[in-house]
Design a protein that fits this description.
The chain is 44% helix and 22% strand. It is built from 6 helices and 10 strands; from the N terminus they run H-E-H-E-E-H-E-E-E-H-E-E-H-E-E-H. The strands form 2 sheets. Strands 1-4-5-3-2 form a 5-stranded antiparallel sheet, covered by helices on one side. A 5-stranded antiparallel sheet has the order 6-9-10-8-7. The chain is of the alpha+beta class and 279 residues long.
């Protein structure tokens, strides 16, 4: 399983070189690990490799997915998911998830649970049941230094955040003048739990960040962010034509990689066949 995961990550890394992301989707935001460790070479490690392989593979065609792998004992059960930012094209989603997965091992060595949030995606796994459960724990908060309270700007900010809280859907964006806002829930939440989580994140943003020119509030299952006067760069929308071109490039490269792999397999087979005949 580990070799399969390594192959997938290598292919996606090669894809990244040929098709760089349009924005800094791989920027690290936060990470966390459980204190419980698994034994190297154990069934849990094998299940973890299988889970991460499934996440990386799924991200080539879906912006969100979840998996659960059972084991012979309850200790070997593992759950995991990934979530890409709602505006990302599939090539950017795939490369972001691959980057997140490569960061889990050095960040959480032999940990039974780990999570990584990058600018463009979120990946989490654990041996406890967390899929579908609401969690409003604050995992990362960042507020810009206060430079004085501007009632007009903060009024627009509050209006944007209020709309984000009532828009509906997992991914929400909004703006007014020089104020931009974005919020997103993890795909395993119901609409009601998502609404509750985003409302909590927005409330904490307003109370904790005050008149700051930008603020980020990441809870365990959702986040809300805002910026004023271009202080922060969030999702950069691409034209539909650019998305279509990216998808075509992605499909072509994957096809080429598959062709190269088949050629290598064929040449290896022929070499062994001739070797057996002494030629």
């Amino acid at each position: 399983m580990a070799n399969t995961l390594l192959l997938l990550l290598s292919l996606l890394f090669f894809l990244t070189l040929l098709h760089p992301s349009h924005s800094s989707t791989d920027a690290f935001i936060y990470g966390g690990c459980s204190q419980i460790k698994y034994t190297p070479g154990s069934p849990y490690e094998s299940n973890l490799d299988s889970l991460l392989t499934s996440l990386v593979n799924s991200a080539t065609y879906s912006s969100y997915n979840k998996y659960s792998i059972s084991g012979s004992t309850q200790q070997d059960v593992i759950n995991g998911l990934y979530q890409c930012r709602g505006d990302l094209a599939m090539p950017d989603c795939a490369t972001c998830v691959a980057r997140a997965v490569t960061q889990l091992a050095p960040l959480c060595p032999q940990a039974c649970g780990g999570a990584v949030q990058l600018e463009g995606c979120f990946v989490k796994y654990d041996n406890t049941s967390f899929i579908g459960q609401e969690d409003k724990t604050v995992v990362m908060k960042k507020c810009a230094p206060s430079v004085g309270y501007d009632p007009e700007v903060m009024g627009r900010r509050d209006a944007v955040l209020t709309r984000l809280g009532t828009t509906g859907g997992l991914y929400r964006v909004g703006g007014s003048g020089d104020v931009e806002g974005v919020a997103q829930c993890v795909g395993d939440l119901s609409s009601g739990k998502c609404e509750d989580c985003v409302t909590e994140a927005i409330g904490r943003l307003k109370s904790d960040c005050g008149g700051a020119v930008f603020g980020d509030m990441f809870l365990a299952k959702c986040y809300a962010r805002y910026s004023t006067s271009g202080a922060h760069a969030y999702a950069k929308s691409h034209h539909a034509g650019e998305h279509d071109e990216a998808e075509k490039t992605f499909a072509i490269i994957v096809g080429l990689l598959a062709g190269v792999a088949l050629i290598i397999i064929f040449l290896t087979f022929m070499r062994k066949a001739f070797g057996r005949h002494g030629k």
